[in-house]
Write a sequence for this structure.
């Protein structure tokens, strides 16, 4: 008698929830990764402010604000992605997951969603500080809701593809260096589109709505293509 595919889907969902819940509970016990990521982002923004402190009142910081914002998130995300997999590797949790009857794509999605949640928390915490430090008394040229939307689309790609790259680098000797070498070139199209969309929201101007949606569509297309590629490659990468 043929079996129904429903139990398989149900088992995969339970495995996904269990892995994701484990990662979140472990982080909530120590707040080690979130604290490191938030402090790193704040320190990066402070350094940017110090560097721009002598630029004078005539310089419009909005011209480079979106680039500064995404630079801080890129550096912070590499820190979080590396720590999320290194922690699993050092404590033997990754080997335990590989020995358990869990589909490799389930591990990928659980890790990617966990990294996305942590990155979104960092964005929510640091965005008010960013506005106070760089955009105070400077009106936005576009609609405010465009900024969190562009951050969300960019964060999805960073978390998904970054999880694959962190898995590749975690088994190497120079994993911090390897992750950075892989991360920046592969993420370049996404970062270019995300910075463009965020910049359109900050600066406004003629045709900014068209520019925003064009860049956001490019970022979304990158997310879709690269997430499908990461999904297909993860079973080979994690078992290597």
């Amino acid at each position: 008698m043929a079996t129904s595919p429903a139990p398989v889907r149900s088992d995969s969902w339970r495995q996904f929830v269990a892995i994701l819940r484990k990662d979140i509970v472990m982080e909530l016990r120590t707040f080690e990764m979130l604290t490191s990521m938030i402090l790193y982002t704040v320190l990066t923004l402070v350094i940017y402010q110090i560097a721009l402190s002598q630029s004078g009142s005539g310089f419009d910081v909005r011209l480079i604000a979106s680039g500064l914002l995404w630079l801080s998130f890129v550096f912070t995300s590499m820190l979080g992605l590396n720590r999320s997999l290194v922690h699993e590797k050092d404590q033997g949790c990754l080997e335990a997951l590989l020995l358990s009857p869990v589909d490799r794509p389930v591990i990928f999605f659980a890790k990617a969603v966990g990294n996305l949640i942590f990155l979104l928390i960092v964005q929510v915490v640091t965005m008010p500080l960013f506005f106070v430090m760089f955009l105070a008394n400077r009106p936005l040229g576009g609609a405010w809701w465009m900024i969190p939307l562009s951050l969300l689309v960019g964060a999805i790609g960073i978390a998904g593809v970054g999880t694959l790259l962190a898995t590749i680098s975690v088994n190497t000797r120079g994993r911090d260096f390897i992750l950075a070498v892989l991360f920046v070139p592969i993420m370049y199209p996404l970062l270019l589109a995300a910075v463009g969309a965020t910049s359109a929201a900050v600066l406004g101007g003629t045709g900014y709505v068209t520019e925003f949606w064009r860049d956001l569509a490019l970022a979304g297309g990158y997310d879709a293509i690269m997430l499908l590629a990461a999904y297909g490659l993860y079973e080979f990468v994690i078992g290597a």
User: Anything to note?
Assistant: Residues 11-46+61-238 form one domain. Residues 1-8 have pLDDT under 50 and may be disordered. Helices lie at 6-30, 32-52, 62-90, 93-99, 104-134, 146-169, 175-203, 208-238. The radius of gyration is 19 Å.
